Amino acid sequence: QVQLVESGGGLVQPGGSLRLSCAASGSIRSFNTMGWYRQAPGKQRELVAAITNGGITNYADSVKGRFTISRDNAKNTVYLQMNSLKPEDTAVYYCNAQTRVGAVNMYNLWGKGTQVTVSS
Which pLDDT does position 68 carry in this prediction? Predict the structure, then answer.
């Protein structure tokens, strides 16, 4: 029943910054992990960053040192701060929520995505 809505995408020049927001209609504490994925034209969807309820983060090697994922539980919102953007960061960015169902299965909830374009 929880829905995810991304915002903050747009057009930015190389070296610029953007902050993406993912607003959930329910408590993000209902999920073990919140994350951001992206899919560029002609490429597979890939993990960009993730954060657990315990605050442990994970980043793709391509964005380490440039992107920061964070969360505000009171606002039920997850953020992705993107600095030093490169043209290769151009993609549709999707918010993801994941939790375990039973001992083996996982449940994933996805937003509709927001376009990020890095171009001069």
Answer: 98
